[in-house]
Structure formats: C-alpha cells, structure tokens
C-alpha cells in the first residue's frame, strides 16, 4: 500500500473570500510506515486527513492509493478523531463491531475479530460499557479498535491523544506503537506535539502555516523498539530539538507576516 | 528593562486602595441550581397541589362563590361518578382519545420522516423549511370553519384540525433534533464503510430518536388541546362535546368533572411517553 499526495491544494470558501488551507502538498507514505505530520494549530492538519479520508475533495491535485485516485471515504482508510466520535448508544463491543456489521459476515466470525481487537486495545473488561462510562483513554482505544477491525490500508489519526492527560497520553503512545508493530498497518498521524511526533514516527513531516505546506520531511533514525527511556536518550532529544526549531521557525515566519 | 517595568508597576500598585469586598449571599433554597432536600421538595410539590385545592374547598363551602360558578369538590365527584356509571364518560373519553390517536398519529407519521429529511439534506431544508415555518403560524382553530366547509361536520374535519395543529411544529422540532447529530459521527461512519442509507438508519436515526420522542411528547399535549377545541364546535360525542352540553344546562359540576378527566388522560399520555423516552435515551443520561 502506497499513499501519494501530489500537488494537493485546498481552498475553503469563506463568505466569498477564499482561504487557502493547503498549498501544493506532496507527501508519499510507504507501506508499513508510521508517518507523523506536525504543525501549529490551523496549519491544515485536519484538512489533510479529511482529504485522505475522502470526506472532502481537494481544490487541485490528486491523492492516490496504489495509483488509484481516492473518490470518497471507505473502510480502507480508517479515521480516528481527537474526541467524541464513538456512537454513544452502542456499547464498546458494538462500537467496534460497527464496520463488520455492514459486511456479510456470520456472527462467530465477527465476534472473533472484535474480540481480538478488544484484547489488543485492552478493552475486554469494559466491552459491555457505554462510551460515557469510559475514561478518555479508553474511549480513544475503542475508536482505534473500531477503525482497525476493518483492516484499513492506512490508519488516519487526527490528534488522537490531544485531549488526554500526560500519563494517559504516554500509555497510549506506547500502545499505538505496539499496535502498529502487531498489525503491520500503515499509520498517518497528525499532531501539534513535536515530542509525540518524533517518538512515534518513522518519519516526520513539518507543516508550515498559512497556507499549510510541507516545510521539512525527515526520517527518524531511532530504533524500532521504543520505550519511555527512548525519550531521554541523547539521540531523541537532539532530534526533538531540531524538529522543534523547524516548527518554531515556521511559526515565527507566520507571525511576522 | 523588564525588571524596571515590574518595579514601577509594583510601586503604583502600592498606592491603590484595597478592592471593596462584597458580602456573599448565604446558601438558601433559592441558590441557583443547588439540590433541595427531599423533604423540602416534597413539601413544595404537595403544597402546590394542596393550596389551590384548599382554596377551592373554602370558597365553595362558605358560599362565597355561587355553586353555578364554582361547584363544590363533592358535587364534581358525584357528577363524574354519575357520568361514569351511565357509561357516557367512557364513550366520550374513548371518542376523544381515538381522535387524538388518528389525527396526531397521522401527523407523527408525516412529520417524523419529513423532519428527518429536512434535518439531513440541505435540499430538504431549502424545499420545506420556509413553507412550514410560515404555515405553523396560522392558528389551527382558525381553520375550523374552512375545514367544515371542505370536509363536512363529521370525523374528517376533526382529524384534520389535529393534523394541522401539530404536524408543522413536530416537523420543525424533528428537523432540529436531526441537525444536532454530530458531524464527526456521520463522517466516521462513512470511513467505516457505511453507505448513505446505512448512515441514516444506523447513525442519524438512533442518535435523534430520544429527541424525536421529546418533540412528540410536547406536541401530544398540543394535540390534546386541539381535539377539545374541535369538539366544542360541532360533534355528537367526545369530552369537548360533553362540556358544551353541560354548559347549555349550567351544569358546572359536570364541566369540572370532564376537565379533570381531560387532565388525567393528558398526564397519563405524558408519563407514558416520558417512560419510553427514558428507556430509549438511557445512553444519553
Ligand atoms: N470547513 C472550513 N471552512 C472554512 N475554513 C476552514 C474549514 N476547515 C478549516 N478551515 C481553515 O483552514 C485552516 C486549516 O484548518 P485545519 O485543517 O482544521 O487545521 P489544524 O487541524 O491544523 O488545526 C484554518 O485556517 C481553518 O480556519
Ligand atoms: Mg485539527
């Protein structure tokens, strides 16, 4: 699976005035990659994911998966928002089962798959709970499980841990790394948190603001096996500092204008 | 430079008089949104019913108000008992209830799908919202003479009044509820592979259902008002008709008894719908 954005631009029409959210973005996501896109708030991160998900159409440019242009949303590109996208009337297991209920699967097969992802995300004990009974971290895990059970080519994450407290966030970062390695799925994640991007990504793309465009694209040469200790290693700290500088430079140039 | 600034502003602040203090209001039963003790709440509820009732008893017992204006509670009770025993009360109550079921039922059957359409598709909103927004301001009771000309004096004109009186409000309220379904929920469903019809059936409708039942409950009360108005004008049975009959013979006690029955049936419907709402909307609690 290769995801390719070629010269993608996006304008929003705001009461007659056009607002350019993305300008000539070129990104290629290779199979099995964990690509993190960092940028300040308003740099077009959500717009980027919405385009890849097929929920909106770019003003110009093309987005392809294995050469086929994206024409609309589909289960081959699972999407997870920051908060509140679980079905509040469905229990955790029925939330996770949603995508499979739309397919021609017998109940046992569906159950087997749902069980696997509930276990993988550590939700087996709360499978019969309603979303409002879960903690923020559990809700995000359920949203991730719900997307993954459809076995997407690429998992799209829109600041998935942005609303969580620091400890829960670290747990979730370790979990998503684990899931990524266990399932072999490709991940495209956007975040404003540089540390998170460097810790999780095999590659980091820095987005400049106003209009959103690619300012830097760098490989993260850290070991596959990352733990919380990784965050204290000199290599990590150096990488983090250099990405922070890039983001800060982009932010300054935005403010100066 | 920064230090100098801090120093200077500290100097200035030293010359300021202390800010005046406000006395704080004590916690009472009227503190905004503070829970009331169970006993106090019960006392207030019981009082709100008992006080008017006591006034009624006193006013009629002392003869301060003549019985043709305000019959004694006992007289109302016996008038009600009399009507119940002769069987006319049951016939009237059922006739009225059936009209509500038919007229309002029809209105629900039309307004809920229409409201869902309007709340889901901009095209539906553009096509129906202006017309319905206008029509709802035309008072249904003003249609009574017209409907009698169009449909005659029988059942159809009464059903039509109920329908007209409730369908527009219920449509607009349903549309509002449906528009409240979060965008993210709809978007995420598409990315899970749902098609348009499935999003409507499995996401929009379940999310909106509790709100739709709320709308139905509010408009059921309106329907119950309209049916009595419709029966006041021309009918041969029904609770409204019974009131008009009683008025002709100055049987105020009978009128009161019928009003009580109307109230009781109305509250029963309300409670039933509340229970359904609580069950369907458990997830939202
Ligand atoms: N639906 C929309 N209509 C108009 N402008 C929008 C819309 N969505 C986003 N924008 C604008 O596009 C820019 C990028 O937004 P977004 O993609 O949400 O950024 P981010 O997710 O990085 O915070 C912002 O300036 C925002 O105001
Ligand atoms: Mg965003």
Explain what the structure shows:
The complex is a heterodimer of chains A (257) and B (285). With 257 residues, chain A is of the alpha/beta class. Chain A is built from 7 helices and 10 strands. In chain A, the strands form 2 sheets. Chain A has a 6-stranded mixed sheet, sandwiched between helices. In chain A, strands 2-1-4-5 form a 4-stranded antiparallel sheet, with helices on one face. In chain A, a hairpin with a 2-residue loop joins strand 4 and strand 5 (68-69). In chain A, helix 2 (92-101) packs parallel to helix 4 (136-148). The mean pLDDT of chain A is 94. The mean pLDDT of chain B is 91. Chain B has helices at 2-15, 38-61, 73-86, 88-120, 122-135, 144-151, 155-179, 183-191, 196-233, 239-248, 252-280. Chain B contains 11 helices and no strands. Chain B is an all-alpha fold and 285 residues long. Chain A binds chain B through residues 50, 53-55, 72-75, 77-79, 81, 84-85, 87-90, 98-99, 101-103, 130, 132, 143, 146-147, 150, 156, and chain B through 182, 184-185, 187-194, 198, 202-203, 206-207, 283-284. Bound molecules: adenosine-5'-diphosphate and magnesium ion. Chain A: InterPro entries: AAA+_ATPase, ABC_transporter-like_ATP-bd, ABC_transporter-like_CS, ABC_transporter_ATP-bind, P-loop_NTPase. Chain A: Keywords: ATP-binding, Nucleotide-binding, Transport.
